Amino acid sequence: ITAPFADEDKHWFATSSSRNREDSWFKSLFVRKVDPRKDAHSNLLTKNEESNLYKIQFHNVKPECLEAYNKLCEDVLPSIHADKYYPCELVGTWNTWYGEQDQAVHLWRYRGGYPALTEVMNKLRQNKEFTAYRKERGKMLLSRRNQLLLEFSFWNEPVPREGPNIYELRSYQLRPGTMIEWGNYWARAIGYRQHNREAVGGFFSQIGNLYMVHHLWAYKDLQSRENTRNGAWQQEGWHEVVYYTVPLIQHMDSRIMIPTKASPLQ
């Protein structure tokens, strides 16, 4: 081989080797080593000692019925929340402002987990006022869906707060098998998002759409939201969390919500 061709071969092999290393590095972002576990992911991520179960409801309301729907909910839901006979609490209730229009979102907490949920369901079947509420509500809805959720151990537990506030529900559909990884990164990331008391609650699904995460945030207004989110990028370490969690997401969605009169989160 003459010298010119030898030089070309060296250049080709060097370039090929460099590309292989780059490809290997790029693929490593998406290939995770999985350790064998003897416990469910939910037990590793949630507050086991409290056993709180959450239910989130999404009701798509006929546009002409939204005002009547809100009034109906205001008349019935707070009474269930206040009655100690039912082991459940209304965490918050909202109308979507930006996102899906003419939509109501309700978040309930069941202290005691699945037994508490079952107890509430059985008792409400005997509640004539609630039965009438459901019948009247059904006339106003286009569709509805719900999910059962657990809360991440490193997030705040949602507690009532005074307003006025707007709320953002950011929902993430994760790639199957990535929930533990998401939790590991966000256990650090939540520290960057506490400065303005914007963090309200963080949850992951158990029944309904699986590998779904919901983060609930509170802001004074849209400009406050913008300033707070921009401020997070000024903190060392936040960009790294975003860099490593984005590949875990299949789909994400954001709702800006306004609390109704009946909501403990104002």
A few lines on this structure:
Its main location: mitochondrion. The protein is α+β, with helices and mostly antiparallel strands. It is built from eight helices and eight strands.
The average pLDDT is: 86
Highest-level CATH class:
Alpha Beta
Spatial arrangement of strands, main beta sheet: 1-3-2-8-5-7-6-4
> What class, by secondary structure content?
alpha+beta
| CATH topology type | Alpha-Beta Plaits
Oligomer description:
single chain
Tally of strands: 8
CATH architecture: 2-Layer Sandwich
Strand content: 25-35%
Number of helices: 8
**Unreliable stretches, pLDDT < 50, 5 or more residues?**
1-36
How is the main sheet built? 8 strands, antiparallel, barrel
Tell me the count of domains.
1
Q: Can you characterise this structure?
A:
By secondary structure, the protein is an alpha+beta fold. Helix 6 (about 180-190) runs antiparallel to helix 8. The chain is globular and about 55 Å long. Strands 1-3-2-8-5-7-6-4 form an eight-stranded antiparallel beta barrel. It has helices at about 5-30, 40-45, 65-80, 115-125, 130-140, 180-190, 220-230, 240-245, and strands at about 50-60, 90-100, 105-110, 140-150, 165-175, 200-205, 210-220, 250-260. The longest helix has 26 residues, at about 5-30. The chain has one domain: 2-Layer Sandwich (Alpha-Beta Plaits). A hairpin with a 4-residue loop joins strand 6 and strand 7 (about 210-220). It is found in: Mitochondrion matrix. Protein involved in mitophagy. Accumulates on the mitochondria surface in response to mitochondrial depolarization and acts as a 'eat me' signal by recruiting proteins involved in selective autophagy. It comes from Seriola lalandi dorsalis. This is Nipsnap homolog 2. Belongs to the NipSnap family.
